[in-house]
Fold:
Amino acid sequence: MGNVEPLMALLVDWWWIGPAAAGAGTVGWLGVRRSRQHALPAGATTTTGRAVRAWSTRPLGKAAARRLELDAAVLDLQVARTAVTRGRADVKVADAEVVRAQAERAASRVSSDAVSAARGRLTDAQRDLRAAMAEVRARRAGVKAAKAMLPAIRSGSAPLPVARLLAEHDAILARWMAYETDPGLAIDFPQMSDSRSPLLADFLRAHEKAQWLRPASVQTRLEPADFLAYRDAVRRTAHAFDRAERAARRGDREQPNTQSDDAWTRVASDLAETAQRALARSMESMGRAAARSWSERGARRAQKKTPDAGDSRPRNGSVWPPPARDRPPTSPL
Structure:
């Protein structure tokens, strides 16, 4: 027992050495690793960086590629709901500012202009909130449309979301290149090949951004946020080209930029595009269902009209083939 007591006393006095050494070793290892990272030449990466790069370069899986549009629509809905929450907070803050301005006006501390300005901010906040709520409804319609399209994508009767978006982008570029390569169109509509035209300049800027966000191929790994960014860029490119083409065909040489950043305009455009897609998909589904129903009905009718070969026995008391009905004699004319 006499030998144990000094050992326990030593442990009580020096117990902190172990944790301190472990912590110092961890800090030193982190410092060495960071110094190695800073000492790497340009373009070199660590094992973690190489693993992340390898994961990002892996092709997109079939299930993820099919659900990409749906996942992007769900993310878009979440962003819209966040905007509604922020809008409601802004309305409450603006309402509180109106109450404060009215109280200060009653105390003759501020003029009536301050109250009018506070009410104007409240009106703007309420308008933005209504636009955000309308955008939530539009995003919900987009989620429903993506869900309705998912069975067709899985069956292979509809293209993958990335492939469809790439085709839309290519169609816009083909329309633009027609004005650049066709001499007749270039003579009739010179605005479509003149980069000094404001509307064509808007299209070129939108096209540059869409081209920068464009994936390399259908198998390129894309996150839902990347798909949303590319989809919105393609839509803006299409809208800018339509405006420039309409102005050129009307003969307007100089048109101001009619693209509005108002939330109601964006919501109306998204609602129209979503409604068109949903209507087209529903009509396609109804057509397939009707064709399947008619084919099944025709098969059942053929089975009823074709009896079994060599089976002339009566069925359920009936006579096969049934006797011809007696017809009443016809009187000569």
Residues 112-155 form the longest helix (44 residues). Residues 39-44, 51-55, 254-265 have pLDDT under 50 and may be disordered.
